[in-house]
Specification:
Layout (H helix, E strand, L loop, with lengths): L3 H4 L5 E6 L2 E6 L5 H13 L3 E5 L1 H5 L11 E2 L7 H4 L3 E2 L2 E2 L10 H5 L4 E2 L8 E2 L9 H14 L5 E2 L10 H14 L3 E4 L6 H10 L8 E7 L4 H13 L3 E6 L18 H12 L23 E2 L4 E2 L1
Parallel strand pairs: 2-3, 3-4, 5-8, 8-9, 10-11, 11-12
Antiparallel strand pairs: 1-2, 6-7, 13-14
Helix pairs in contact: 6-7
Length: about 300
């Protein structure tokens, strides 16, 4: 088994060859133009090109890539082309968040993959909402295979994260020393998020990673959510709201936000500047501010 920390995620666009065919798997819509350039080169070399992935689903086949490549709905275990240590034990999510692609692309009912290949990075969209027996099945598969779970990449859902879920997953998650991941996307879920943070109170701060969506609510409400995460002894990972079909990696400003402020809050949070100063004292021009970078281990921009 390879080391996920060394292999990591490739950044959202995978390319590989099989015979005279070039395959492109595009995770993010802002990678579509790059994928189009790669497809043009492959065609010029006399190769057949097949493309797919969430990005093409989002643009509903309206990108020029569809003019030079055959569009496929799926490819077996394509996630390994993005990270060879990644796997799925289920697809879909019943929650139906308006800003998430998963319900539209994979459905609001779970599709289970009982014989999933056991690997260190588990990417299921909502582990805590799975039937408890199936959660046990996943955990038992890891134990039988002797594989360490290094990261439950998409995390747990606060609405369904109960003491039983915590007790069930704690031995597996803590053995791998990966982060406990969950999200605080909207103020309406504050009660459930607070309960999760209380349950995880004894876990080290660096291993409690909370995704905080910003820009989907007014500035003050988003900052309250970030501060609650910090005050509860967790680490916020801020994700500025973007349109699902954005062709450039630029946040979408709504309410009283600007693009610059969205970027500033993300850098203040994800660069751990909050440990030294409140956002009101953040200065994007200071030389000691770390610019945004892609963390290949997490598959996230930090």
């Amino acid at each position: 088994m390879t080391d996920a920390a060394k292999i990591g995620w490739i950044g959202g666009l995978a390319e590989w060859q099989e015979g005279d065919t070039t395959y492109l798997s595009v995770a993010f819509t802002w990678k579509l133009d790059e994928a189009y350039s790669r497809a043009l080169f492959a065609v010029a070399c006399g190769r057949r090109v097949i493309a797919g992935g969430p990005a093409l689903f989002l643009v509903k086949m309206q990108h020029e890539l569809a003019g030079v490549a055959e569009i496929a709905e799926s490819y077996p275990d394509a996630v390994t082309r993005h990270n060879p240590d990644a796997t799925f034990a289920s697809r879909g999510c019943p929650v139906g968040c308006w800003f998430c692609i998963v319900p539209a692309m994979e459905g609001r009912e779970f599709t289970l993959i009982p014989d999933f290949p056991v690997r260190p990075i588990l990417c299921d969209n909502n582990l805590s909402a799975l039937d408890p027996k199936y959660q046990d099945h996943i955990i038992d598969r890891y134990a039988a295979a002797g594989v360490t779970l290094k990261d439950a990449n998409s995390g747990f859902e606060p609405i369904t994260f109960t003491p039983d879920v915590y007790a069930r997953w704690k031995p597996l998650v803590n053995a791998g020393r990966g982060p406990w991941r969950f999200a605080f996307d909207e103020m309406k879920e504050a009660k459930q998020v607070r309960e999760v943070m209380r349950m995880l109170a004894d876990e080290p701060q660096k291993r409690k990673r909370v995704y905080v969506l910003i820009g989907n609510e007014p500035f003050d409400e988003c900052m309250v959510r970030i501060q609650e995460v910090i005050d509860a002894g967790c680490e916020p990972h801020v994700q500025p709201y973007m349109k699902l079909n954005a062709l450039a990696k630029v946040p979408h400003a709504r309410f009283d936000w600007t693009v610059q402020r969205l970027q500033d809050v993300a850098r203040w949070s994800n660069g751990w500047v909050w440990k030294r100063a409140p956002f009101s004292e953040y200065d994007r021009h200071r030389k000691n501010i770390v610019p945004e970078r892609y963390d290949a281990q997490q598959g996230l921009f930090v």
